[in-house]
């Protein structure tokens, strides 16, 4: 994810899921991890700027955490 997109998604996860979120330095479009498991991967099109939406990421993390 881009820095701005990552920061917005992190804030949304904190707000909507009351989750503890750490941002780590990574390459553009990389992963959203929960307990070391890949939950969302930007995929091959991330280099084109096509990133998973905040809603998709929140839903995937919610599902992983079973909230």
Structural key phrases:
alpha+beta; 67 residues; two-stranded antiparallel ribbon
Describe the structure.
By secondary structure, the protein is an alpha+beta fold. It has one domain. 40% of the residues lie in helices and 10% in strands. It is built from two helices and two strands; from the N terminus they run H-E-E-H. It has helices at residues 3-17, 54-65, and strands spanning 32-34, 37-40. Strands 1-2 form a two-stranded antiparallel sheet. Helix 1 (3-17) crosses helix 2 (54-65). The longest helix is centred in the N-terminal third of the chain and has 15 residues, at 3-17. The termini are far apart. The relative contact order is 0.23. The model has no long low-confidence stretch (mean pLDDT 83).
Q: Approximately what portion of the residues adopt beta-strand conformation?
A: 5-15%
- Main sheet attributes: strand count, strand direction, barrel closure: 2 strands, antiparallel
Order of helices and strands: HEEH
Mean pLDDT: 83
Based on DSSP secondary structure assignment, what is the total number of beta strands?
2
Number of domains: 1
Q: What characteristic shape results from the CA principal axes?
A: globular
Q: Roughly what percent helix? A: 40-55%
CA gyration radius, whole angstroms: 11 Å
End-to-end gap: 24 Å
């Amino acid at each position: 994810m881009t820095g701005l997109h990552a920061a917005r998604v992190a804030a949304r996860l904190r707000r909507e899921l009351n989750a503890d979120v750490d941002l780590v330095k990574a390459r553009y479009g990389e992963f959203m991890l929960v307990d070391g498991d890949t939950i969302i991967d930007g995929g091959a099109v991330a280099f084109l700027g096509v990133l998973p939406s905040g809603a998709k990421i929140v839903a995937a993390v919610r599902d992983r955490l079973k909230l």
